[in-house]
UniProtKB/TrEMBL annotation, chain A:
Pathway the protein takes part in: Steroid metabolism; cholesterol degradation
Organism: Catenulispora yoronensis
Domain Glucose-methanol-choline oxidoreductase N-terminal residue range list: 68-266
Protein name per its UniProtKB record: Cholesterol oxidase
UniProt xrefs under Pfam families: GMC_oxred_C (PF05199), GMC_oxred_N (PF00732), NAD_binding_8 (PF13450)
Cofactor dependence: FAD
Transmembrane segments: none
Domain Glucose-methanol-choline oxidoreductase C-terminal per the UniProt entry, residue ranges: 452-506
UniProt family annotation: Belongs to the GMC oxidoreductase family.
Taxonomic superkingdom: Bacteria
Keywords associated with the record: Cholesterol metabolism, FAD, Flavoprotein, Isomerase, Lipid metabolism, Oxidoreductase, Steroid metabolism, Sterol metabolism
TrEMBL record, chain B:
Alphabetical list of InterPro entries matching this protein: DUF5987
Name this polypeptide is given: DUF5987 family protein
Record organism: Catenulispora yoronensis
Superkingdom of the source species: Bacteria
């Protein structure tokens, strides 16, 4: 009964970092087990329903920290199930950022050019599609037209969305009912299963320890399928290789909790967290002016009033992604959608004479919700987030049965970060308040601190052991055989929606993980095609892998 | 599914008064004390804030008696600090006028207040009740005229309870692309 299970590769988490590793390692011949702390749902279980206990809370986590709240996936497929599937590549200059380190934050081996073959692999696998103005939603089109009227450029954003299946329901955060969003449930994960990988939902990793033969033992709790606060079982699995991809909010917490058993962690574990410089502004449009100034019409006398319609972000302006500008003054402004609740509470009333985020004036503002336009800033923050002592289990003290908890992250924005937000707020106002088109206010940071839907960098790659937890192969310094492939590995803010870059980095890390597994006696090879068998991006990746390993 | 109960009337009135401070509504009957009556139409209370606070799923229910006691203690201190008239016929927070409730809640949720997260939590539940009716199935809430979803102008779903918008785009170019866009549509 107490026999410890064993496998070749244990993957913690089934988002981009975990699913990509699980697929390639299983396809290459390794025995792979995946532990995922959230539930396993498929399209017919993704509901259009805000009720607590439906998919909108089963698969989504909102973790309140001190000064920063994290929003993310909690299910098989991880962030890919709840994301908006916007998939731009990170601008070239991002890879040369220094942050506060006085040197290039990224490993010397990684540049935009070096990452292109790996982006291409992901683009083929999901796939990622270039979007056109016909795909831009009313909100996206409005943002584009406002940018144009203010003398700016704007682009439809590439996305991992099947436009033939998409109904523009804007329920993406509760999972895609129509399988239009190309989540990992449709590509890497089923392919991993086909190659014999096993996925165990509701298995939350508690701690990693070392075995006598140089491998690892991973202890987990099984959590209740409705009330995630309740532990209903526990166990452990031994593995030769551990791929840790629990998400930026959880990966460092697992390592911190394991420090007593594993020995000292690199300094950067649980430090240098970045919120991707994220910030939101809400504009309230004057519907008449949408017609007069922008010439937009939905037919009849309807101009916009379509906040609810769409598929998350569809149009962005990249005018401030200017490599000539100094660091911390560059940002992307992207049209976005948030459902009511999470998307309404923090919005502030323009010209409020009382409280800005609650009360009678806020209620009046909410009555104009269909005329809201949400504008999303991704800027350069200062990697100033630090994780405190880990909670007893998981990565948060769960408050509600699902979704809501309190985590150990502390984030005090530096003047650099604040300046980026201020500049982007001002630019959003310049574009949208021009000629009285709209009134714009940023979301308040006074309620739950800042917030991010793209947490990054809490266990990052780099060349400098003082400021990075992982080497450029994603192996945890001082703990050979543990690899980290999720958003925590990204060195800093990306000025773009990060899923594509996280996935490309995970693809890039795989040949190194395969090599490490082989060195530990696992019979595994690298070189699987895309999950659907496609091989158009494989050749360049194989060449890049050969260069990396020095062959 | 979730257990709900009416609870102690003074507890209910206090919770209602708090929720009504976050999203105000109109009085339900003449002499309704819990609702300040500073806004037309239903507010958080009519939207079901107290029911939501009392769901098992929300996690707030076990803390409510303590929260109500603490809120009324803060209200007594506030009343005494401002020299307001005492009214023991209702809980101390309910006895405050709408304006004073707003002032007190603003203090409680301000950055730096030691209990801030408790009161922010209560506010979030009040908002979640009004903005989405998180204690109700959304299609049922829509069908029964939930005041928050109605205020938002949330569109009706298709007959199967799912939302689909075949008309979603202006379908024409509306801006010039950034000159450094790559062939795959990303920033260079």
């Amino acid at each position: 009964m107490s026999a410890v299970e064993s496998t070749d590769v244990l993957v913690i988490g089934s988002g981009f970092g975990g699913a990509i590793a699980a697929y390639h390692l299983a396809a290459g011949g390794a025995r792979v087990e995946v532990l995922e702390r959230g539930p396993w749902l498929s399209a017919e279980e993704f509901e259009h329903d805000f009720k607590f206990g439906t998919s909108s809370t089963r698969i989504f986590d909102f973790v309140i920290g001190e000064g920063m709240s994290l929003l993310g996936g909690n299910c098989v497929g991880g962030g890919s199930v709840v994301y908006f599937a916007a998939m731009p590549r990170a601008p070239r200059f991002v890879f040369d950022r220094q942050g506060g380190t006085g040197r290039r934050m990224w490993p010397a081996a990684i540049s935009r050019d070096a990452l292109e073959p790996w982006y291409d692999r992901v683009a083929e696998a999901l796939p990622v599609t270039q979007m056109t103005w016909d795909d831009a939603t009313y909100a996206g089109g409005l943002w584009g037209a406002a940018c144009h009227a203010a003398g700016r450029t704007a682009n439809p954003v590439p996305a991992a969305i099947d436009r033939e299946l998409c109904t523009n329901c804007n329920w993406m955060m509760a999972g895609c009912r129509f399988d239009a969003k190309r989540s990992l449930l449709l590509n890497y994960l089923p392919a991993a299963l086909a190659h014999g990988a096993r996925i165990r939902p509701l298995h939350e990793v508690q701690q990693i320890s070392r075995t006598e033969d140089g491998g690892y033992r991973v202890a987990y709790n099984v959590v209740h399928d409705v009330d995630y606060r309740v532990v209903v079982g526990s166990g452990s699995i031994e593995a030769k290789i551990v791929v840790l991809a629990a998400g930026t909010g959880a990966t460092p917490v697992i390592l911190q909790r394991s420090e007593a058993a594993l020995g000292p962690m690199p300094y950067a574990v649980g430090r240098y967290f970045s919120g991707n410089g994220e910030r939101l502004n809400t504009a309230i449009l004057d519907e008449d002016k949408v017609g007069e100034l922008l010439g937009l019409s939905r037919g009849g006398d309807r101009r916009y009033a379509a906040n609810q319609i769409g598929k998350g972000p569809t149009v962005a302006t990249w005018d401030h992604l200017d490599p000539a500008r100094p660091e911390y003054e560059r940002f992307c402004l992207e049209q976005l959608y948030f459902p009511p609740g999470l998307g309404t509470i923090l919005a502030q009333v323009p010209d409020a004479t009382g409280p800005t985020w609650f009360g009678a004036q806020k209620k009046e503002m909410v009555k104009r919700w269909q005329s809201w336009l949400t504008v999303f800033t991704m800027s350069e923050d200062d990697n100033e987030g630090v994780f405190g002592a880990p909670p007893p289990t998981g990565n948060a003290a769960r408050f509600s049965q699902q979704m809501l908890g309190f985590g150990p992250l502390k984030y005090v924005p530096t003047p650099n970060t604040l300046r980026g937000w201020e500049l982007s707020d001002a630019e959003a106002r310049r574009i949208l308040e021009k000629d009285g088109l709209a009134r714009v206010m940023p979301w308040t940071n006074d309620v739950v601190g800042a917030y991010t839907v793209h947490p990054l960098s809490s266990c990052r790659i780099g060349d400098d052991p003082a400021t990075s937890a992982l080497d450029d192969r994603h192996e945890l310094r001082g703990h050979p055989g543990i690899f980290v492939t999720d958003g925590s590995a990204v060195p800093g803010a990306l000025l773009a929606n990060p899923a594509f870059t996280i996935a490309a980095l995970a693809e890039r890390a795989i040949p190194g993980i395969v090599e490490a597994a082989r060195a530990r006696g696992v019979d595994v090879v690298y070189g699987a095609p895309a999950p659907d068998g496609g091989v158009s991006a494989r050749g360049a990746a194989l060449k890049a892998a050969a260069r990396m390993s020095g062959h | 599914m979730e257990e709900t109960f009416d609870g102690d009337p003074s507890e209910t009135a206090t919770l209602e008064a708090y929720a009504d401070t976050i999203v105000p509504g109109e009085k339900r009957w003449p002499g309704d004390r819990a609702i300040a009556g500073v806004s037309a139409g239903g507010g958080a209370v009519a939207a079901g804030a107290v029911e939501l606070m009392r769901t098992d799923a929300g996690g707030l229910a076990p803390a409510l008696p303590d929260l109500v006691r603490a809120l009324n203690a803060h209200a007594e201190a506030y009343r005494d600090r401002l020299g307001l008239e005492r009214d023991d016929s209702v809980p101390a927070f309910v006895a405050l006028s709408g304006e004073h409730r707003v002032a007190l809640v603003s203090e409680l949720v301000a950055p730096g207040h030691p209990e801030k997260m408790l009161w922010v939590g209560m506010a979030i539940f009040s908002n979640m009740a009004f903005d989405v009716g998180a204690h109700l199935h959304t299609s049922e809430a829509m069908a029964s005229g939930h005041p928050g979803l109605a205020a938002l102008g949330y569109f009706q779903p298709d007959p199967d309870g799912l939302w689909r918008f075949p008309d979603f785009s202006y379908r024409r170019p509306l801006a010039d692309h950034h000159p450094d866009t790559t062939p795959s549509g990303s920033p260079a």
